[in-house]
Amino acid sequence: MRAMRHFSVKLNDGHSMPILGFGTSAPTKVAKSKVEEALERAIDIGYRHIDSAYIYLNEEEIGRAIRKKIASGTVKRDDIFYTSKVLCRVAYLWSTFSRPELVQTSLEMSLKKLQLSYVDLFLIHFPIALKPGEEILPKDTDGKLISDTVDLCTTWEALEKCKEAGLAKSIGVSNFNVKQLEMILNKPGLKYKPVCNQVECHLYLNQSKLLNFCKSKDIVLTAYGALGSDPEKEWVTKNYPVILEDPVLNAIAEKHQRTAAQVALRYQLQRGLVVLAKSFTEKRIRENFQVFDFQLTPEDMETLDGLNRNLRYFKNTYDSEDSSVTIEIGEIDMSGTNSDEVVGSGAFCPGEFLYLAHSPCSAHVCLTAYNTGNENLLCLRMG
Ligand SMILES: NC(=O)c1ccc[n+]([C@@H]2O[C@H](COP(=O)([O-])OP(=O)(O)OC[C@H]3O[C@@H](n4cnc5c(N)ncnc54)[C@H](OP(=O)(O)O)[C@@H]3O)[C@@H](O)[C@H]2O)c1
Q1: To pair with 78 at 20 to 30 A between CA atoms, which of 47, 151, 223, 243?
Q2: Which residues line ligand 1 (CB under 6 A)?
Q3: Sign of CA dihedral 155, 160, 166, 171
């Protein structure tokens, strides 16, 4: 792994992961050809860690860009660290109909699109599952996503099989909270621990508790949305504070003669996270890679820690109305409930704030527990 050899972290299964990753998820209106061009530039610049997922619907273009760079001699396959993620509804199908081969099917579908023989990392994308069907995102007649129950432990066992089959070098999770991680770690007969947990993490949601937990278990925490993501994305809340415009961040950037984006990324690296950064703009792809040649001071780090406000940009909701509500998550009794409309999911913690798109006709929004069969997933119900 030539360009990034010095900038990798050793995973708990012995493999290495470059600590800066190239994000590839873009708003649906962006032409898929953009990711191909951007990834080719990124590989030229030195990125070796590429993050995608079946659901981004760009693995064909990504595979083409990687194969082009291999053919031109820029990289070898084993220089590249490629991450994909299981399709939620396949996990569901597998769980409900006891068809473990369907998790592997999701991975094989990715590999077919990529035209690669393995991925370096395969993740459970969300600790929720969607109703099976033809559509990738099954929706009801009101356009709402249809979710259902899944046993995360059996899904994990299917990932272990993918690793043993040589289709994924490493396996991990995404959007898991401490309880969900503990469930996997405490699973009887666990063969492989997750190597990482990929979650939303940035200056306004620094995930310090989850980070400490992951460090104590030798699980890498990978940050997505580290630059504040893109409000053009369907899943990202609009009208929230913009990280890269934060005056404190910009003052530190100016002091180091760096950009706000470089400091936002460097902050995560110095905390021991792996960080993802998406840009399809050549100048920014280059800029985001220049984060290995400067150091934030302990005082800078402390000041940046102080910016945390438990603000979550990703609502994982299907409700795209512009008006929004803010909810502080409290302690919730998660026993014996069912949800009808899940509008949020992820590694939520009590005390966090959620900004949600809110339909004006909804009288109220309430937190409820979504009974996953594991009694550990916080979700929200619009009422
Ligand atoms: N596991 C999950 O559930 C999950 C969820 C979300 C994301 N992810 C992964 O994490 C990656 C990163 O997250 P993300 O794409 O949501 O957000 P992000 O990397 O925080 O931000 C991307 C946005 O920042 C802009 N940007 C990039 N560099 C910049 C710079 N130097 N200065 C100013 N603006 C800059 C980009 O615009 P331009 O492209 O126009 O430059 C884009 O609008 C994704 O691409 C995906 O691979 C995973």
Answers
A1: 223
A2: 23-25, 51, 125, 174-175, 198, 224-230, 244, 259, 261, 276-281, 284, 287-288
A3: positive
Taking CA atoms only, the protein residue closest to ligand 1 atom 25 is: 279
Report the DSSP beta bridge partners of residue 121: 83, 170
pLDDT tens readout for residues 317-333? 333 333 334 444 444 43
Could you tell me the fold of the domain covering 4-311? TIM Barrel (3.20.20)
Per the CB < 8 A criterion, the answer to whether 82 and 53 are in contact is no
Active site residue 118: no
Which region among 98-112, 124-138, 200-214, 336-350 has the lowest average model confidence (pLDDT)?
Answer: 336-350
Q: For residue range 107-118, list pLDDT tens digits in order.
A: 999 999 999 999
SS3 379: strand
Q: What local confidence, expressed as pLDDT, does residue 316 receive?
A: 55
C-alpha distances (whole Å) from 194 to each of 13, 82, 95, 168, 345 are: 9, 16, 19, 12, 20
CA distance 176 to 178: 7
Given 56, 92, 267, 318, the catalytic residue? 56
Least confident of 47-61, 207-221, 230-244: 230-244
The terminus-to-terminus CA distance of the chain in angstroms comes to 51
Paired sense of beta strands 377-382 and 365-370, if any: antiparallel
CA 298 to chain centre: 27
Q: pTM of this prediction?
A: 0.83
CA 115 to chain CA mean position, Å: 23
**Helices vs strands, H then E, count in the chain:** 11, 17
The pair phi, psi for residue 80, each rounded to 5°, is: -95, 140
Q: Is the pLDDT of residue 367 over 90?
A: no
